[in-house]
Amino acid sequence: MFQRCGFADADADLPDADYVVVGLPFDCTASFRSGSRDGPDAIRLASFNFESYDYYSDVDLAALAICDLGNMDLGADAAYAEETIKEGIALLPKAAIPIFLGGEHSITPPIVESLARRSAPGGLGVLVLDAHLDLRAEFGCTRYSHACASRRILEKEGVKAYASIGIRSGCLEEFTFAKENGISYSTSREVKEKGIGVNPS
Asked: How far apart are CA 66 and CA 59, in angstroms?
């Protein structure tokens, strides 16, 4: 299920890991251009071009217990990929924090579903940073499309809060669905006008 390769400084074995990196190289529902399937390995390659120490947060990645399990073999079918992702996440140790490298948006709903099952009784909150609403019921003859990712997330049991930031486009159906269902989102224009600073309470 997993193909081992390595993120820089991810030297820990799985039983000892506090963080687990998993690549999800899938982009078979891409509607504009493919290529995000190469993302996980490109991120890993780029990781070797940075110092392990981040002085902003005073954290040295080399001092953290990180395990990179490599990439899941997700095939070329979105429904198969979703089930494979859920099966793979179920094998991860609950004590470790998972970090997923994608891949297109269609990988997100099974991640959310799996993490919601592992979360505290209060449920899971999801924050999406995207230019698109991704609230279509179906796109490209499939409900598993990247353009349906947020709609599928909202259907998952255990998702107690949801918001998206940076929205600049979507079809009429999506904006109507968001309004009728009270879905929280901020447009890119609102972000530009209001800024991203947070006033301490």
From this structure: 13
